[in-house]
């Protein structure tokens, strides 16, 4: 069976603020099918001015703290970009895309289903690297 790609109704360019963008990312993340042991925090990083748009960069940092190890050995970051066009009407929804730490592949919320395995792979690879060093 084909899985349903979950998305949210993204804010329009004329209603956008940095904080509303962060809250929308949180709302989108809440549609992901991840185990409740995963915790995350989101933060705004920077604003980028381009010729035809403005980009707002955010980071969502994920980890699985436990009672025995409340400070996890490694974390996984997902980088979101919210782009507002200077050319298209401000009444259109913002463009959103994200990349995983250590990957250059660009994901769009309306085109891909997030997989918890991506977070696990990032953390496992970091732990393997730390053990080798």
UniProtKB/TrEMBL annotation:
Transmembrane segments: none
Domain of life of the organism encoding this protein: Eukaryota
One Gene Ontology term of the molecular function aspect: protein kinase A regulatory subunit binding
InterPro entries: AKAP, AKAP_28
Gene Ontology cellular component annotations, sorted alphabetically: cAMP-dependent protein kinase complex
Pfam family, one: AKAP28
Protein name per the record: AKA14 protein
Source species: Dromas ardeola
């Amino acid at each position: 069976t084909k899985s349903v790609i979950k998305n949210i109704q993204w804010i329009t360019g004329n209603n956008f603020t940095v904080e509303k963008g962060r809250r929308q990312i949180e709302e989108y993340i809440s549609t992901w099918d991840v185990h409740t042991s995963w915790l995350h925090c989101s933060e705004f990083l920077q604003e980028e001015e381009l010729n035809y748009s403005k980009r707002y960069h955010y980071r969502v940092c994920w980890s699985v703290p436990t009672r025995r190890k409340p400070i996890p050995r490694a974390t996984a970051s997902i980088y979101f970009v919210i782009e507002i066009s200077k050319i298209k009407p401000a009444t259109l929804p913002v463009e959103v895309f994200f990349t995983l730490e250590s990957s250059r592949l660009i994901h769009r919320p309306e085109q891909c289903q997030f997989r918890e395995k991506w977070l696990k792979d990032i953390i496992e690879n970091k732990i393997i690297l730390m053990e080798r060093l």
